[in-house]
Design a protein that fits this description.
This protein is an alpha/beta fold. It is 45% helix and 11% strand. The protein has two domains: 142 residues, 3-Layer(aba) Sandwich (Glutaredoxin); 159 residues, no CATH class. Strands 1, 2, 3, 4, 5, 6 and 7 form a seven-stranded mixed sheet that branches. Bound molecules: zinc ion. The site of zinc ion has 7 residues, from helix 4 and helix 5.
Length: 314
């Protein structure tokens, strides 16, 4: 799942965005001991996370280095690398961005939130959880988009990631936050049921930093968690509208000017002021089928059952 966890002090020093030409290397598998990359760190991590000191497996493909520090098998690790190569092709066909290479990915045991984090030497790497032997595959594309597009205002980052993910796999029911319903349909629901959150709040960085998914035993979303879920969706719908109506160049100029932590309202405020009402009106007027939240959200999870009840009750 898709929250960026980037230590804020770090992020400031990073180049943005990453613009490194993709090499055209031969596609193939490599397999090496973890020691080649950084034994100390690996062993520390394995000790902490897995309780053992076994070597990590590394799968190298054209554009990815996937380090398996988890209980996933080598076959699963290869499958992750293969899936990522496919996602990267789809992504670079849709967005005029060059990906950094190689992109580092780590599979780690634990129920943490999938996230892109600052990589040693600049850029970002992807940390993907493995729970009970299952890789969080549905989060791979979202985190990949963060790595390729680089740091910006969190609302722009998450909006772009959710939108582009949905554009590439619109019907994947496993992808947070939209779970297969279009972000436009969700936003139309918020407008109609009175839950709409103004974009000035959505694009404030703290809108995205809640820990609902890190609390597996929580029986329901808190108010802040509900807001966070909506923030991902509204940001994505707004970014989708901007790309369709204002265009990539203007969007990307603002994306590059905004920072993760800076006084972004001066940069993104003009976009919100100029287009929020137009975008909302376009959603209200469009005939977009909207499914009830209970038919879309993974309501077997009590948190989402709570969310569905809240959204469908009004
Ligand atoms: Zn994200």
């Amino acid at each position: 799942m898709p929250i960026i966890i980037a230590p804020l002090s770090y992020a400031r020093a990073l180049p943005q965005p990453n613009r490194v030409t993709m090499p055209r290397a031969t596609y193939g598998w490599g397999y090496a001991g973890w020691d080649r990359i950084g034994p100390r760190r690996a062993h520390t991590t394995l000790d902490t996370v897995g309780g053992t000191t076994r070597r990590a497996e590394i799968v190298t493909t054209t554009n990815f280095v996937v380090q398996n520090r988890s209980s996933a098998t080598i076959e699963q690790t290869r499958a992750v690398a293969e899936q990522l190569e496919g996602h990267l092709v789809a992504l670079t066909q849709r967005l005029p961005l060059e990906a950094p290479s190689p992109i580092q990915v780590r599979l780690i045991d634990g129920g943490f939130i999938p996230h892109a984090a600052p990589a040693p030497g600049g850029g970002m790497l992807m940390n993907i959880p493995v729970v009970d032997g299952n890789v969080a595959k549905d989060s791979l594309l979202h985190e990949l988009i963060h790595v390729v597009s680089g740091f910006s205002n969190v609302g722009l980052m998450e909006g772009l990631a959710v939108h582009a993910d949905q554009a590439i796999q619109p019907h994947n029911r496993g992808v947070f936050p939209a779970f297969g319903q279009s972000v436009d349909a969700w936003t139309k629901m918020f407008i109609d049921n009175g839950h709409y959150v103004p974009l000035s709040r959505v694009f404030a960085a703290k809108a995205f930093f809640t820990d609902a998914h890190a609390r597996p035993n929580a029986s329901e979303f808190s108010e802040g968690d509900v807001f966070s879920w909506q923030a991902y969706i509204e940001a994505a719908s707004f970014v989708r509208w901007l790309l369709d109506n204002v265009g990539w160049e203007e969007f990307w100029r603002v994306y590059q000017e905004a920072s993760l932590t800076g006084p972004n309202y001066a940069v993104i405020g003009p976009l919100l002021d100029a287009y929020e009402d137009v975008w909302k009106a376009s959603l209200s007027q469009a005939s977009i089928p909207v499914l009830p939240a209970r038919d879309v959200l993974p309501v077997r999870d009590p948190k989402f059952a709570h969310l569905a009840a809240l959204m469908d009750s009004e």
